[in-house]
Amino acid sequence: MKTVFFLTDCSVDSALFVRRWLTDQNEAVIRLTIVHPYDIEAGDALTKETHRVAKQQAVTRLARWLDMIPASTSVELKPETLLASPELAAKIHQHLRAYDYILVDEPAGVLMA
């Protein structure tokens, strides 16, 4: 089983990128961890309520994004939201888990920084 990490901003373009990649991987069984990092609104203090609202918005965005990914018996999707910058979210996941592949649909410097 291939383990794959993908960091998404929940854009349509990123969903199309993942769909194309999954189409090319039709012979393999894949565990795809999809992480959507989120933040609170600028100027808001980090409180229990602001965190709850931001997390709910992120969960809703990620659920809509996942609807654009076709279901497959050979792909196990593991969606997650994380209160962090994209760079920090990528670092956290790379330190905590081992992945066979990291899908990148961003400029090269984002994950290398």
TrEMBL record:
> What's the protein name?
Universal stress protein
This protein's species is Spirosoma liriopis
